[in-house]
């Protein structure tokens, strides 16, 4: 009780010495609490609405094949069934065209949830014969209004209403076109749903008994073992969204932890400064009989109370930010309930990170601070860093290990978390070694000019805070430079490289009888060049090394190729736009057993290599092929690239459509070509690559904004830490400055001394940060196959110049009182 009473009395004097400490703590905890609360709410919303988002309890998908009467009867024996179909087409209105994704629905759609329209009318009432509903973006693209007539493929439809909500939107595959919804029977009557392009048939089943879901999937596989369908359940459906949310949470949490770790240096500075100012009090308590342990516990309680208060404020601030962000997030993620509730586990997790970080960084300062001797009351305060006792060192190590374990155990991707920890430790070690090297070199430098000699001596003298200044500015600057280089390379790739090497148009659903006519059509137009046309069939990987794909632990980055059917092709010659990195291509006249060429990144994710077998289900038939070679593919070039290419003869027996890319000399001719192709070949869909690149630019802009936000938070923490590092030496510096003034130093000499010291520290720190930041950006971009890394000198130079100016400015602001204090004011107290 005495410990608590003394601690509370000490806190009556306020927390002036802990303002910067609290700033770092509150920001870091707020980021972690806000991101965790928001992601937990999103994931909870997805789980709560998973049946609605899937469109039922289970979905059975077929490509270019309808379920047979026997298969449909089996599905209906387990519950209500709704069939939807999807097919691409070109929408034309006057001179305007757009690629659309048509979704045909039956009378049972939707089984769960509700499709809402702008007019408020029921969907079934609006979808009469010849009527369609579309998303708002299509009206804007075509310059149309509801009630007008638009051409889709070979038929015309009336724009009856605007679709504002599609309950099972994310259950559908990634669409290239804008949404159009019509009745299935209406589409069939008007010439759609014929084998003239890629058609997906989705059968959503709402089970009579949800407990029979496992029984249903097993019975379906047993009853129709060779059926070429993809079965998705509630757990499978939202995997992509959940992975996105988990990655977002992880990266933003790491940003919060980076803030806390950078702030940890400030926390250490604040604790040391506070305990230094309390040296007289500590000496008095020891003189009155207090033990070292008693004094340590008093200041431990003080620090604990301040930490809990700051962490609680930060956690609640993070929850408020999450609540305010929820309506904006709901616009692009499937959240139906935007009412925010306090997430106690997220709050406790954030507070836990805050408390562990504070004590990991402050336990050493506490341990050294209580070593003040009572004799210092009579012969002046002691300078220099005291040795840390074994028990305090052990406690510090245990806390650090707990912080690391907590980060790894709570991370959605432990590899990234471990990488973050390793990078943080490496950065701290590198900057500590650089500081030690600076001190060694400074001791050997001897200058004649007094103010320059003193500036060099300030780097290594007892009580020097060079390490704190270098850590606070160095780590923040390293993060900033790394993020700026990543963002700059993204922008360069999207704005400069991609538009130059990408074709103008991507055309799909070209049927074999149309191939020659279509090529002739293109040759007649002299503004078209570089035509590349390839056959495409649809297939699904069913086995690897004769093991069913469901029983293989495929890495996350490769699941895109195994979870659904994929496009593949066959070719006698190797593609011109990819490089064989392992194995060899087959001869052009090859007629042996089926072989397959595979993307080498995909092969790594699936755990296969040259000589292994891969079984591909194509329209219900199993084709077993041996992996002959692996290729390095640059998908972002937008040229025709297939992850899987079969040898001649292995796939030619299956019906295929063709896809093509081409270059058009002007935007005007591009629009003319799309319009003429849509009229002459209504089943062929055209995709403007510039629009796709524009979409990528939009995504990059959002990524860039997130990167800048993370950099801003991290840099702001660095600013607070820098201020705390400079403020930590203020008392000692003021005394030194007064002595120098008494000995005849001018104010200009003192200013030059401090300025030289700051510039030396800032220059060395900036140089190391540039190197570490560039390495970090290179490592990040190395994971992105299509991204080439380049140094951007302009961005680095501007950042370094800004850092130098800011360090000097902050130093002047913090030391203003020193420059303006008169010597007599201090000397009267001596």
Explain this structure to me?
- The chain is α+β, with helices and mostly antiparallel strands.
- It folds into four domains: 1-54 and 239-412, no CATH class; 66-227, no CATH class; 435-501 and 690-830, no CATH class; 528-664, no CATH class.
- 54% of the residues lie in helices and 18% in strands.
- The chain is built from 28 helices and 21 strands.
- The protein has a six-stranded mixed β-barrel. A six-stranded mixed β-barrel has the order 12-14-19-16-18-17.
- It is elongated, with a radius of gyration of 34 Å.
- The model has no long low-confidence stretch (mean pLDDT 80).
Features:
28 helices; 4 domains; 21 strands; 830 residues; alpha+beta; elongated
Short description:
The chain is of the alpha+beta class and 830 residues long. The strands form 2 sheets. A 6-stranded mixed β-barrel has the order 2-3-8-5-7-6. Strands 12-14-19-16-18-17 form a 6-stranded mixed barrel.
List the SSEs and their pairings.
Blueprint: H1 2-11, H2 19-48, H3 50-54, E1 58-63, H4 69-76, E2 79-93, E3 96-105, E4 116-117, H5 123-126, E5 131-134, H6 136-142, E6 149-152, E7 155-165, E8 178-183, H7 184-189, E9 199-207, H8 213-223, E10 230-233, H9 234-237, H10 239-277, H11 279-287, H12 292-329, H13 344-369, H14 376-379, H15 390-410, H16 414-444, H17 450-457, H18 466-501, E11 505-510, H19 515-523, E12 528-544, E13 547-548, H20 559-562, E14 566-570, E15 578-583, E16 595-599, H21 600-606, E17 613-618, E18 621-633, E19 644-646, E20 657-664, H22 667-680, E21 685-688, H23 689-728, H24 730-742, H25 747-782, H26 793-814, H27 816-820, H28 823-827
Parallel strand pairs: 3-8, 5-7, 14-19, 16-18
Antiparallel strand pairs: 1-9, 1-10, 2-3, 2-6, 2-9, 4-7, 5-8, 6-7, 11-20, 11-21, 12-13, 12-14, 12-17, 12-20, 15-18, 16-19, 17-18
